[in-house]
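Worked example 3. Consider a protein that binds pyridoxal-5'-phosphate.
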Amino acid sequence: MSLPADYWTRVDPAAIPHLVTDTVPGPLSEQYNARGMKYMIGYSGQVTLCPVVFDSGHGCTLKDVDGNEYLDFSSGIYVTTLGHCHPKVSEAVAHWAQRLMNCHDFNTPVKVALLEKMAEIQPWDLTGMQLYDSGTTAVEAGLRVCRVATGKSEFLSCYMDFHGKTGHAVSLAKMNPASGAGRSQGFYMVPRPYPYRPMFKQSDGTIDTDAYLRFFDEFITQATTGNIAAFVLEPVQGWAGSVFPPEDFFPKLRKFCDDRGILLFADEVLTSMGRTGKFFAMEHWDTRPDVVTVGKGFGNGFPVTAMMVSERYKEAINKISASTSYGGNPMACAAALASIEVMQEEGLLEHALELGAYFDRRMEQMQAAHPIIGDVRGKGCLLGVELVKDRETKEPFTEAGKAVYQRAFQKGLAWVPAGHILRMSPPIVMTEELAAKGMDIIEESIAEVEKEEGY
Ligand SMILES: Cc1ncc(COP(=O)(O)O)c(C=O)c1O
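Given these inputs, the predicted complex is written out as structure tokens:
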């Protein structure tokens, strides 16, 4: 594989994970949790299912307060794509932390360099940009641009997509009535093609992409006022369990949108900046979006996000002010610029694709060996394994998903739960040996759970 032998993240696969306490979480983690959880309420399932307290991270490894070392298959939550504390990114942030932390939305040399770099790496005409500090605020800005650019007000989004936790971003996704959210007017959801669980099928049982498009058309007529500004969707559904669309979906959706004067808004907060082996996941389907949002791996851990709009809508972007307290601050720009440069200089997109090919092979082998694995999928380092009780009925095996997550974590693998779908987002700087180590832990955990469940 393409990583140089002296690569900074290299660790001996035999030395990781390294657990020094009898139980995970260990006693010191328990103590910190007792203090922290007294005040902070509402942790994610990732934490509550295995509440260790992390103290440091280096490359593909994490260390907790008890001294246990973990192999990282989560990148935080799809964030530290280059591993923890990449020296070039850390140095870039430290430099600006000592020189200039904030100057509102004035230009700075590092901001200009970042904007030029983003214009260089995007393969389309998305050269209208604004910088933000969270994915959800970038999504909000994207929605407003779509309204201003089209003069229309409604949006279509997809079942099981996730776009953030602020007002309109929440309105793009499934509502949790207990969470206090409410859908804003003019926000509509439609099913999207899920190849493993197709809602619309051809006579041979395979997914029928055209039937989805026919449904969208009918839905617009029946359920909306026909005033659709944009179709908003994740290129690959992250939170839903790394769900990839059929190959023909995005090219066909592009034409569908063009024919109806609807903008195509790709929310790439999770999928962009190397996660799938490309800077933008939409490149896999050779489909040009009109609006894109990027985040997570963009600053490799430093909060920085962006909204990018087609050249054609530059007037519209000017109308929605770009000014925020933190968006585009020098530390943020430095983190994002350094992250992109590292990916380019070290050939990491190619490496992510090579790793992805390894993961694909390995997941397919696992699927062949384990009856509870219904589906496996991935591109680059965005991966999913779907657990089912029965391959015929495809009934989700949620209890197994939870048990495998906890078991693998207790063996020293930090990763991401998602009900019956095992989600993996390892840093793209991982060696194949380390990737194999992580997959060994997952397979061992699946085998143990399978045996306990009587398979
Ligand atoms: C596709 C997508 N959009 C938006 C968001 C929101 O990003 P943030 O948590 O930075 O607000 C997320 C977060 O998981 C996401 O996956």
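Take a moment to read the result before moving on. Residues 348-369 form the longest helix (22 residues). The chain is about 35% helix and 15% strand.
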